[in-house]
Design a protein that fits this description.
- This protein is α/β, with parallel strands linked by helices and 271 residues long.
- It has two domains: 139 residues, Glutaredoxin (3-Layer(aba) Sandwich); 121 residues, no CATH class.
- The chain contains eleven helices and five strands, in the order αββαβαββαααααααα.
- Strands 1-2-3-5-4 form a five-stranded mixed beta sheet.
- The two termini are 18 Å apart.
- It binds zinc ion (ZN).
- The site of zinc ion has 6 residues, from helix 4 and helix 5.
Length: 271
């Protein structure tokens, strides 16, 4: 189970806040740092973190897995990954270069046009890297076009660890909010509620849990909502004003919340 501390979200929406701090500011104080290329990721670290080799195959496979999840061709652009030896080094860097960024365990930002992941060596490294890498791929593939925050975070949660592990992370919270209620969807779990939260600073653990559950549901090929979601994604990628997914679902599948609720009950409540 993760602590509050490890919930992270920043994303490319907030990037206008980050003036000018480039990779040079990382390289300067630690002169031995060199960029080490591993496929589409360019790592910067003093010493390779112990947990890094194990997560590399997953990072390598991530673009293809995401592409098949979205049903879209994705554009994978080079991403810089700054790995800090401990939390203090990470915080010092944030203090100097991103004073307004949330103090979580990792971050995805675009600095001077360069997509960049910041993370700390430690227990959550694999999760953090996979999570932020989803944001990086979304950024590369959907360009400046807005991917809704719930979709960006829900997808990142979906791919950062196994299904079983994510059930443990989010299931309890979803069960808590639903209680014995099986007929109507609790307001905070509604897609239309999630869509109203557009700033990373306004998110909480429930937002992540609900977004994760929607992203998992929409990917199910058996639901009639699946095709509507896929069309929505391809419209975002094509720069067609995509609007809100909940509006499209209401028109095409008026009972979509019931379908989601049923899926949620089967997957999360009756395990
Ligand atoms: Zn995130």
């Amino acid at each position: 189970m993760r602590t509050k501390l490890s919930r992270r979200s920043w994303g490319f929406r907030a990037l206008t806040l980050t003036a000018g701090a480039g990779l040079a500011s990382f390289a300067r104080p630690v002169s031995r740092v060199q960029a080490i290329e591993k496929d589409w990721l360019y790592f910067h670290y003093e010493r390779e973190p112990a947990g890094l080799p194990a997560v590399l195959p997953e990072l390598r496979a991530l673009p293809e897995r995401l592409s098949s999840y979205y049903g879209l061709k994705l554009k994978v652009t080079p991403v810089h990954v700054l790995l800090f030896k401990d939390r203090q080094a990470y915080l010092n860097h944030l203090e100097k270069t991103l004073p307004r960024a949330p103090r979580r365990t990792s971050l995805f930002v675009v600095r001077g046009g360069k997509p960049t992941i910041l993370a700390t060596a430690g227990k959550t490294l694999a999760r953090d890297l996979l999570h932020e890498a989803v944001h990086a791929i979304n950024f590369g593939s959907f360009g400046g076009r807005q991917v809704p925050l719930w979709l960006d975070e829900g997808g990142a949660e979906l791919f950062e660890a196994t299904q079983t592990s994510q059930d443990l992370v989010h299931g309890e919270m979803l069960r808590g909010i639903m209680g014995e209620q099986r007929d109507a969807l609790a307001v905070p779990l509604k897609l239309s509620s999630l869509e109203r939260i557009e700033l990373p600073t306004k998110t909480d653990a429930l937002f992540y849990a609900a977004s994760w559950a929607w992203c998992r549901f929409l990917a199910e090929r058996g639901t009639p909502c699946h095709a509507i979601w896929r069309r929505y994604l391809s419209d975002i990628q094509a720069d067609i004003a995509a609007g809100k997914l909940s509006h499209r679902l209401t028109l095409a599948e008026p009972n979509y919340e019931t379908l989601f609720l049923k899926h949620l009950s089967l997957k999360t409540l009756d395990k």
